[in-house]
Design a protein that fits this description.
- This protein is mostly helical and about 120 residues long.
- The protein is built from 6 helices and no strands.
- The longest helix has about 35 residues, at about 25-60.
- The chain is rod-shaped, with a radius of gyration of 32 Å.
- The relative contact order is 0.08.
- The mean pLDDT is about 85.
């Protein structure tokens, strides 16, 4: 017997000896404890994984693209139609949407004059 009158089951871990009737509830309780610990660790893993991904996104190459280059890419998203001198309503909305994605994209749209000529 261990402390508190609970039977010690450590000898069962390293043998094929069947548990005594009094030891079965002790083993079952330990199994429940271990399942609880695994559940807590899985929740922690999810939280840590989310935090890891957030930190990794800081180093994303997209964040380091110069505004001018990003704005130049945007000019290909909605080119003028043949003979068009003024962007239609859909073209204007597309550029407005681009500027709402994030600060970098807003800055890129604002410094790229080609996007706004002909509005």
């Amino acid at each position: 017997m261990s402390e508190g009158g609970t039977p010690s089951i450590s000898y069962l871990l390293d043998s094929n000896t069947p548990p005594k009737a009094v030891e079965i509830p002790v083993v079952e309780a330990r199994i429940c404890d271990l399942i609880g610990k695994i559940t807590e660790l899985r929740k922690l893993e999810v939280e840590v994984t989310v935090e890891l991904e957030r930190h990794q996104s800081i180093l994303s190459p997209v964040r380091r693209v110069p505004r001018g280059a990003l704005g130049h890419v945007f000019t290909f998203l909605h080119p003028y139609e043949e003979g068009e001198k003024v962007r239609n309503a859909a073209g204007r909305k597309d550029f407005l949407r681009l500027s709402l994605v994030c600060k970098l994209w807003r800055d890129a749209t604002l410094v790229t004059h080609e996007l706004w000529t002909g509005l």
